[in-house]
Amino acid sequence: MLASASILAVAAISAPASAQTITPQGSATVPVTTQSADPAAPPQLVAPAAPTRPTSSDEIIVTGSRIQTSGFTAPTPSTIIGQDQILKNAQPNIFNTIAQLPSLQGSTGVATGTFSTSSGQQGLSSFSLRGLGTIRTLTLLDGQRVVGANVTGVPDISMFPQLLIKRVDIVNGGASASYGSDAVGGVVNFITDTRFVGLRGNVQGGITNYGDDKQGLAQLAWGGAFAHDRLHVILSGEYDDEQGVGAGDFGIDLAKSRDWHRATTLVNTGITNNGLPQYLYRDYAQPFQYAKYGLISAGPLQGIAFDANGVPFNFQYGSNGVPQRNNNSGNVTGCFVGFCVGGDLSGAVGSGASLKSALKRADGYSRIGFDFAPDNEIYLTTNIAQVKTSNQPNPGAAKTGLTIQCANPFVPLSIKQQCATAGITSFQFGTSNAELPNIKVHTDRRQYRFVGGLKGKLGSGPSNWRYDAYYEHGLNITDINVDNITLTPRFNAAIQAINLNGQIVCANAAARASGCVPLNLFAGNALPSAATLAYIAPEAGPFQHTKQTQDVASIAFSGEPLKLWAGPLSLAFGAEWRREFYRVNADPYGAGVTTISPNDSDYPADPLLNTVNGSNWYAGNYKNGRGRYTVYEGFAEMNLPLWDNQAIGRANFNAAARRTHYSTSGTIWAWKLGGTWQTPWSGIRFRGVTSRDIRAPNLSELFAAPVTTTVPNFTDPFTNTQVSIIQSTIGNSALRPETARDTELGVVLSRPAWLPGFSVSVDYYHIKLKDVISSLSAQQIVNLCFAGDPTTCGAFNLHNTTGPNFVNVQSFNLASWVTSGLNIEASYQWNRPLGLPGNFTVRALGTHIYKFIVNAGIPNTIPNDQAGVNTGATPDWKWLAIQSYTTDKFSLTAQERWFSDGVFGHQYVVCQTGCPVSTVNNPTIDFNKMKGAFYLDVGGSYNLNRNFTAFFKVDNVFDHDPAPAPQTNTGLDVNPALYDTLGRIYRVGLRFNF
Q1: Tens digits of per-residue pLDDT, 705-750?
Q2: Which helix (H) or strand (E) segment is 264 a member of?
Q3: Coil, helix or strand for 600?
Q4: Which of 199, 433, 721, 861 is buried deepest, with most CB atoms within 10 A?
Q5: What angle (nearest 5°) sits at the alpha carbon of residue 108, between those of residues 107 and 111?
Q6: Which domains does the chain have, with CATH numbers?
Q7: How would you write 611-656 as a 3-class SS string?
Q8: Cβ neighbours, 10 Å, residue 616
Q9: How far apart are CA 2 and CA 217, in angstroms?
């Protein structure tokens, strides 16, 4: 696809090295074959470039180490995704290409988080290596940190200059000694083409076979060389519009004609000791506490629902259920806890969530570099980007347990009469609120990132010292706005109506005085009046405005001070300073303030609302907060060659250490020890590394915006009584960094003499993560202290004599995780297969997880193995295979993505009869299997001439439906972290290069 286009004229990487001096561009006059820095990566065909003078920018620095010297082989396994594979995958966002790698598990993107209103992570594209979470994967741009796009500190990949990225390095293992905090799972480093010269562009569009998620992408980059190739200027811009996959309707109908949603649920029988399983796997679970336009859910009239015209009818319960009608419990004979099976599903809300957030992103990037001396450059980069996303978390705003007075003037006459016959004055009511406009969440992230730096050589002596210094300032501003969401106190007031002087008004006099307009819950699908909507769901809905800044100053040196018996001793050392800051402001109805001005047109004072604690919205109750910390770091790394001779091969020892001081948690060390042995046997190399890695608590964990609620009946285990408490959710400035011990052992076979086109690597890893920061409930905090653990005892006072009793809900360093597994990567390149022109390449990458044990560190809980749990993100096996045939004229590519069958959870005991007693830690269940998935993607390109290439791509060719991920509530039964939820996608486009 790219052999004839200079778009692939990137620096050649000639060996599996952590840092490699390359052959200068233009030194060859015919296309040359280059090899990725990973031993199992296939060679890539690279077109010759116009001759240029070699500079310091031609140095290839691979992310696994800070050592920069030719011939050095890092012990940490890495995967390299080159520009050729990025282009062939033809994704509108490079994040999608990288997230397909098997070692990346639990990454978030536009298809995840769409069910959420308040998380603030909708549409955020961020990586997770080893299933350890996005906060434990360090993402870099040209080896430099990027300001976070969320208070957790993770950046948004959508904001990177994607057309200029020539490769992506993925370090599969801890790299904190080299790069600092967050590199527990590993590092993803995007490398841009800093010497690009020419004009490059890409235009593409896409659509699903269901006719939605229409996509349009336009990218353009220009690079120029001036002043005898000493001044390089690069500009790029791109715009991406992905319409997303919208919500379905109530019930089980998804967007368009997708038909795989079956409201699959683990229904709870509520019985633990009758020899039968407590949980049952069932399709078409029916919540029986509410219906689409309302349902009387308890009492003598239980089971009367209302249709789209507001006409009462007898609700059809599943499971042949019969409403008990004898009390206010709302139980249904023949059904389960909260659910029946089958019946009228029209009011279920799970299918109403977006399957993919809509996304619009605009990115601008510039780089100016000047070689003020040979092999020395000063540069300035600017990256300004904006990403807007929107999603619908669910339709309506379901309410249960509402008390409606029989005298309410909106209640139909027939119901009033039945109230009189039954001798009741009120009834319980539940509704999906299908008559209300659906909730919409809009995020707007804006990033401003500036980097100025110097890099190059020091002198011209044999030690070959290099330096790299830069200062980065990043600013991210995120605005979240929620539309069509109700204020709970106002909604509750509006549904209580009375007749007053011949008019229907709100029953509460204070509510009437503050503008209450009554809401008719019995009008079916008739949209409430504009005045009613303005009162219960004001246009100025929940919002959150977040400002985050990041400042980094870094300097690093690398050189070879000594020539030893087996080669040069290589050193790298440096220092870094970093400051992180955030401030978040939210609306007063959600955040709470001491006073709200009556003259505030957006958020006027209202006696019904809680102005101190806030949390008045149905969802989206964002809070105010701020915090900052500073970091001082120093690091050093050494590569010591041990031996180098023909008889026993070549070996090296690699060691690194980093001392980090946090203004919040003090000083901590990270280190690594490793080595490689290139054996005398053809192509065989062994490698191993062990390291101590860290993750410091982020701004959100340290300085979480406070949320205060009153809990009237809290259990005091010390006196075995019920007490009233003030529960405050706050940050914990006493948190310590998490620490991990990562050990990796691997063997590499790289192009042996007996099969020169073949490479394979197998690496075993074992990671033990301690002091994991995790949240506890108020009751868990108190119970933990009562059980004898002093960690949480300072977080509460249940016998306060000078003020109210309180419990501060915080995060603590209590949990621990242990995971181990295999990483496998193999490739084979066959030049001129069967005498045909071009080359055929096969590449496969796989990850096998032996165990992923999570220990919450809470009394009365047991460790839980997440490996093979397909409701999560860590299947037992995950593979990616790619086959590509490329000539000077065209290319064809096939890609297979597969992960293995799994379970809902290893804690379950599967049985049909004769079941043991079901417990909280080991509940019984009748079925515990969740099928894996296989996806086939195909693509191709055709070089129209030297400058233009047309291409196509089809993802999920067989339109494979996702396996149900059973819920224990009313959510959508799907796991977008693993499964493709969109269906077959078609993409076509045109690339050009001059």
Answers
A1: 777 777 777 888 888 777 888 887 888 989 999 999 999 999 999 9
A2: none
A3: coil
A4: 433
A5: 125
A6: 6-239 (2.170.130.10), 285-344+399-432+488-536 (no CATH), 632-993 (2.40.170.20)
A7: CCCCCCECCCCCCCEEEEEEEEEEEEEEEEEEEEECCCEEEEEEEE
A8: 23
A9: 20
